[in-house]
Amino acid sequence: MKKTIISALLVMTAAYANATPNVQGYYQSKELISYAVNKIQQNKAEYFLLDYALTLPASSEAQLASYNAALGYFQAHNSTVSEEAFSNIVNKVNASALHDQFVCRVDVNGTNLAYIASRGQACGANYDAEPRAISQKGTKVSFFRRWDFDPTSAHFDIQSYDINPQSGREVITQDYVLKYEGNWIGTSVRVIKDEVEMSSGLRETSYDVASYQYSGPRSGIISGGESLLFSDYPYYISEDESDLSLSDGVKAMTEANFLTVGFIDGPYDGRNLHTDSAHYEFQRDFVKAYQLESGDTAYFVSDPQRFAIGQSFTGPSDSWVWQDETDEASGGDWVAHAFNNSHNLVSLSPTYCMIEDIAEGRPVTEYHSKDGLWNPSIYSCGKPQSGTTAKVYTSFVNGNGDEVSFDSLRQSAKDMLSVRNQHPQGSEPLLTVDDVQQMLTSPRYQQIKKELSQRYQWSKPYDILK
Predict the structure, then answer these.
(1) Angle at 431 between CA 430 and CA 436, to 5 degrees
(2) What is the rounded distance in angstroms from the CA atom of residue 400 to the CA atom of residue 397?
(3) Domain count of the chain?
(4) What per-residue string of b and e applies to 29-38 under the rule 16 or more CB within 10 Å gives b?
(5) How far apart, in whole angstroms, are the C-alpha atoms of residue 243 and residue 278?
(6) Do 250 and 289 belong to one domain?
(7) In a designed cystine with 121, which of 62, 91, 150, 284 is the match (CB 3.0 to 4.6 A)?
């Protein structure tokens, strides 16, 4: 039971802040951008009445916030959202906001705070027990959500956004935290959107995305530790390779590496490294542009690299890259990795041959032998080995719990199979001990980790008054 509970909690903290916790590296970074922006837009509707309450004068006693006044304020600042669309959103996420409510509006050390209250309630800075609260300090707005579905600990969901009115630079953060066995655990995400001037005179949007997860110390057979996903440079996307950034600190996405540094307080069983102790696991993604048959450009990880080593950085280690073919096997691992990460599939990870089944409209079939899953060679799809049994699937499930039809995946499967050899797989040098130690000591890693991990040392890591 203990294993089930903590595993579920860790998955939940990742899911709320990361959108797609089963997706890795570059693919996760890509998803975080759209998820963060969409979540803030949802919050503007869900918290619209409290957002309006921030404009009210501070008071030591709860005051009535008018629904009609709040709606008018929302529409004035969100003119592209119709009243019908607005009502549909709020009905789904916070139906109680569709009428007049009493609110507390207080000022705390230069921060404006508002939360739902009851008639006659005395107002103060203690919003911890409230289901929702909102704060504003300067241009930064923060949203607080408390969840009490877990009998062992309240869960806290916090988002903030800060837009520089002069430069347009946006900083969006998302944090999901809870306390387990005396430690705050959770996931913290930061997305920075900015503009970079290009050599053509145009301006492109740049992104700086990072995600930090902390799971505390090891608990019995449940691994603990921490991980940080980031890119070695902020990056922009441009299909014109000759149009370059005028800033040395921003690179094209195809020139940046997407890195994950993980310290795992738990076991690892690989090809060379076998340990029951704390160790490091690293990821490095090289991204390339691929031309689809439709003429569109898509971006996939050309070399998804992995490295694992003991805490002392001595002794055996594992270093490899996902490839369709190696000297030892031709299992189609590159296609499977790209396809599964692109679609956030969680019910199972389709093999190359299953993806080919989807592309060709054949029954999507998984094979099992007495030793477990049997993965055919990419040259033997549809040719079951003697002694194996077939299991046919009719759909998959993604990380949102949605059933995904094979028809909806067919074109993507065709694309993956057609582009897989556009860039050489495994052409980049594999990660070495020196490489991963440089990741750990790099100023960028140190700075981002300090920034995103600091709230786990606070007595209230969900604080929106800081």
Answers:
(1) 175
(2) 8
(3) 2
(4) bbbbbebbee
(5) 45
(6) yes
(7) 62
- Report if residue 172 sits inside a domain: yes
The two three-digit tokens of residue 22, written as one number: 């089963």
Q: Residue 6's pLDDT is what?
A: 39
The verdict on 224 and 291 lying in the same domain is yes
Per-residue pLDDT tens digits for 148-201: 998 889 999 999 999 999 988 999 999 999 999 999 999 999 999 999 999 999
Segments of 406-466 assigned E as strands: none
* 318-357 residue pLDDT tens: 999 999 999 889 999 999 999 999 998 887 889 999 999 9
Contact 192, 231 (CB under 8 A): no
Residue among 339, 347, 365 nearest 404 (CA):
347
Residue 213 and residue 16: Cα distance in Å, rounded?
12
Same domain, 189 and 308: yes
**Single-letter residue type at 41:** Q
pTM: 0.91
Residue 416 CB-half CA count within 13 A: 31
Which residue type, as a one-letter code, is found at position 64? L
The domain of 313 spans 2-323+426-457
The residue written with tokens 């920034």 in the block is: 451
Domain assignment present for residue 182? The answer is: yes
Asked whether residue 466 is assigned to any structural domain, the reply reads no
Indicate if 430 and 401 belong to the same structural domain. no
Residue 236 and residue 250: Cα distance in Å, rounded? 7
Q: Are residues 131 and 265 in the same domain?
A: yes
- Looking at the structure, tell me whether residues 197 and 285 fall in a common domain: yes
Same domain, 270 and 151: yes
